[in-house]
Amino acid sequence: MNIDSIRNGVVIDHITAGRGMRLYELLGLGELDVSVALIKNAVSRKMGKKDIIKIDAALPLNIDLIGYVDPGATVNIIRDGQLVEKKELHLPEILRGVIRCKNPRCISSTEQELEQVFKLTDREKKVYRCIYCETKAN
Amino acid sequence: MSVRSLIDITDLSTAELEELLSVAQDIIDRPGDYAHLCDGKKLATLFFEPSTRTRLSFEAAMYELGGHVLSVTGTATSSAAKGESVADTAKVISCYADIIAMRHPKEGAALVAALNASIPVINAGDGGHCHPTQTLADLLTIRREKGRFTDLTVGLCGDLKFGRTVHSLINALARYEGVRFVLISPEELKVPSYVKTTLREGGIPYAQTTDLEGAMPELDILYMTRVQRERFFNEEDYLRLKDSYILTPDKLRNARADLAILHPLPRVNEISVAIDADPRACYFKQVLNGKYMRMALILKLLKEAGRL
Fold first, then answer.
1. B228 at the A interface (CB within 8 A)?
2. Are residues A132 and B127, on separate chains, in Cβ contact within 8 Å?
3. Which of A33, A124, B15, B66 is the most buried (most CB within 10 A)?
4. Which part of chain A is CATH 3.30.70.140?
5. Which fold has domain B132-287?
6. Phi, psi for residue B69 in degrees, rounded to 5
7. DSSP, res B38
8. What residues of A are in contact with residue B116 (Cβ under 8 Å)?
9. Residue B236, C-beta contacts closer than 8 angstroms, at least 6 positions apart
């Protein structure tokens, strides 16, 4: 499958080999009624091996989530068969609704419909903490 | 948050801490000047977890400012028993009161309340997480007893893992020059790693030990804490650890003459009653200082919210 084969859609490229499936699941791509391809262990000159996800539809994706799972990945937006935008990812400062706090003492474990929010507290070590109880995300 | 609240001691800048300490000292010196500043204002004390001193301290503080108090204690008699969320409770109480002081067993509950209230929220303890007004009481006590926050060796002893007052006090004192911490606890109740990371990254010296008597001679301040039954899921662990450190006159043999012994109270048995008469025992003074600091805080937050 080539990028050219998508007319309007998204290609998540340069995914660290092995993380593609996790992204696929977290982005809920299995629930979409469009063509989605997950390519595992594709040959990469730069990375040796990489995963690639191709989505044959111009859908809004949770860029923060992709940045959290794999900040080295790139998101390519394809329109009319052309690469129109290449998004470089980074670790987002705030993560909303991506991960759950595992602290049973946290208010987020009981409060109705409380959004799970995590804050990046150490960019170097990729540490996120729950904004409510400050427990570290695993 | 539409108005300023106090959730964590780090919400206050060093200048603001100084401002609160200065107002509290002025309240001590000239109480009459403050007796009617909150006339007609209402403090709602929402305590969803057992507390005597903190709730009464807030209520006494508001009364001494001339204000009124609306009180909810325990979940059994409140709408929380019917399953009301913290967010909804905060919105409802905002319609009745001018300021909220809230204690809740869940960590982060005060932040949820502050995010939903239209009046200031003071965190009066959210589980094992933060207890900033206890820290304000601790700071005023240290200021009054030692005259400074700099160049102090501070021993923290007991439950350093779940002890929220310990974490807040470390955060507050770590801002000052020349402060060194001696962390005295059983292995199972050591300070969480994020607290140590904060100390390391700030270049603040600290030592960890299990030996209270060994650490005693170097301490300017000894902050004792209770091993809290309510923080344990397992009763056996609590029973095994609860008597880890008991301060007795004998253990103070090598302590400095100007040591200040603090404790957030309530005490169970970790400080012998025989120490109460020792001039170095400051824990009952701490209670009084807590009331003055809460008065200063209520005034500050009500002014900032435009309610005074």
1. no
2. no
3. B66
4. 3-88
5. Rossmann fold (3.40.50)
6. -130, 135
7. T
8. none
9. none
Rounded to whole angstroms, how far apart are CA atoms B195 and B145? Answer: 26
Instruction: Note whether ipTM > 0.90 here.
Output: no
Is the pLDDT reported for residue B237 higher than 90? no
Percentage of residues in chain B with pLDDT exceeding 90? 78
Catalytically active residues of B are 53-54, 82, 103, 131
Tokens 């009624």 correspond to A33
The two tokens of residue A17 are: 């080999």
Going by the DSSP 8-state scheme, the letter that residue B9 receives in this structure is G
In the numeric block, which tokens belong to residue B124? 């009066």
Question: Does any CB of chain A come closer than 8 Å to the CB of residue B125?
Answer: no
For the domain spanning B9-130+289-304, the CATH number is 3.40.50.1370
Distance between CA A15 and CA A66 in Å, rounded?
9
Q: What is the pLDDT of residues B67-124, one digit of tens each?
A: 999 998 766 666 666 678 999 999 999 999 999 999 999 999 999 999 999 999 999 9
Which of the four pLDDT bands, split at 50, 70 and 90, describes residue B128? Answer: confident
What is the second-level CATH architecture of the domain A3-88?
2-Layer Sandwich (3.30)
Give the A:B interface size as CB pairs under 8 Å.
Answer: 51
